[in-house]
Specification:
This protein is mostly helical. The chain contains one helix and no strands. It is about 40% helix and about 0% strand.
Length: about 50
């Protein structure tokens, strides 16, 4: 193999190892907010 191909493969291998060696990101805290209940407003009619 040529030196260029070997250098490219070495760079890819190094990038892969560096990506796997990075610390795992911390988990974010998930907060669920209950929505306000939907209340139907009274309907007014002029014939009531």
């Amino acid at each position: 193999m040529s030196k260029a191909i070997k250098a490219l493969l070495a760079a890819c291998l190094l990038a892969g190892v560096a990506g796997c060696a990075a610390p795992a990101p911390e988990q974010e805290e998930i907060i669920f907010i209950e929505p306000a209940p939907i209340v139907q407003e009274p309907v007014y009619n002029k014939y009531n």
